[in-house]
Design brief:
Rossmann fold, 2 domains, five-stranded parallel beta sheet
Length: about 375
């Protein structure tokens, strides 16, 4: 199945060079024209159409403003290539464009290019960029990618090996047709993770009988049964309730569990058509990315709740309520920190309420496009 290929990365990392070479050497790939109010330069290639007026730019479905100019793409150009059974390629570097493209073309293959900052500076100077512009571009885009949607991350050494690796990666990625999914649901104690997960499972069970629901707390319990596999400190962390841990120890508990989660996932997903819903407190969403599940669509959900409602839910629980209430400030502070971590890493934040299962169900339906 043909799909959109998005190539992203910092300025001068080799995005456009890769896209144009793919377009020149692969008959099945076509680079999509980018429109801009910036005047065309002699160095611009065939896929750049500059000198557009602001009124003309309104015809673009996707528009971003950078360095006092507007840049954009027309979705009709992308759909034309798709309808011709080819692979359209779009080059972008800003978060808003990435999100808009993935929202419109959810099965897109998403490639991120990394490179040595010193090499990128050298390339920008060769293009006669001002030192001020180089500084702005570098500070805006040189951080390591933190986005759930990247399928592959490729390092550019600025040699032939880079193109060979990228071409092979894209060839493999084009064959991926994600019709199954992995859902990760995280949140603090007594926030409703099990209820939401079970509600989602009930919605999916008829149309997707191979869907499995797994509580990571059960996996943690299994790890506790093999204490010889861990250090004394890690055993202590594993045997502690998450809400009793410091933030750093909580993150360590999640790291230990994450490897086991991946192992269980790999075994489960070997079954054709299998899907998984993981949920628990010790499930750090930032430790999982799309590249961990190359043949499934990854959906990372952080469940949030009003703090007063959160306290009420904790107070309504019969088990160790008094001890939890004594630690309520710690629990609320942990929720705030974890929430910020997940937002920074591009995860989806949903309110933990009766509508949450239906919202996640619709999300999966839109992404995987197979739920009837």
């Amino acid at each position: 199945m043909n799909k959109l290929i998005i190539i992203s990365g910092p300025a001068a990392s080799g995005k456009s060079t890769l896209a144009r070479r793919l377009g020149a050497e692969e008959d099945c790939i076509e680079v999509i024209t980018q429109y801009s109010t910036r005047p065309s330069r002699e160095s611009d290639s065939f896929d750049f159409c500059g000198g557009q007026t602001k009124e003309q730019m309104l015809e673009c479905d996707l528009r971003v403003c950078k360095f006092n100019n507007i840049y954009g793409y027309k979705f009709v150009d992308i759909r034309r290539v798709l309808n011709n059974k080819k692979y359209p390629v779009v080059v972008t570097s800003d978060k808003e464009s990435m999100q808009a493209l993935l929202s419109e073309f959810s099965d897109a293959l998403f490639i991120y290019i990394q490179a040595d900052p010193s090499k990128m500076i050298e390339k920008m100077r060769e293009d006669n960029r001002s030192e001020e512009e180089i500084s702005i571009r570098l500070s805006a885009s040189c951080a390591s990618p933190k986005n759930a949607s990247y399928d592959y991350i490729i390092y550019n050494n600025y040699d032939e090996d880079f193109f060979v690796t990228a071409k092979k990666t894209i060839e493999d990625g084009r064959l991926i047709d994600r019709k199954t999914f992995v859902v990760l649901i995280q949140g603090a104690v007594n926030i409703g993770k099990s209820t939401v997960s079970q509600g989602l499972y009930n919605l999916l069970s008829n149309s997707h009988p191979l869907t499995k629901i797994i509580d990571v707390a059960d996996l943690r319990a299994a790890l506790r049964s093999i204490p010889s596999a861990f250090s004394e400190n890690d055993n202590k962390i594993l045997n502690s309730q998450t809400w009793q841990l410091t933030y750093n120890d909580f993150k360590r508990q999640c790291e230990i569990c994450a490897n086991f989660v991946r192992t269980v996932a790999q075994a489960t997903l070997k079954e054709d058509g299998a899907n998984i819903i993981f949920h628990a407190v010790p499930l750090d969403l930032t430790l999982f990315h799309q590249s961990d599940f190359p043949n499934q669509r990854l959906v990372r959900i952080f469940l949030d709740i009003d703090e007063k409602e959160h306290i009420r839910r904790i107070a309504d629980q019969d088990q160790i309520t008094e001890l939890k209430l004594k630690n309520i400030d710690r629990i609320l502070e942990m929720q705030r920190k974890i929430k910020q971590d997940t937002i920074d890493d591009g995860c989806i934040v949903l309110q933990s309420d009766v509508e949450a299962p239906q919202k996640i169900y619709k999300m999966i339906s839109d992404l995987v496009q197979i739920i009837q």
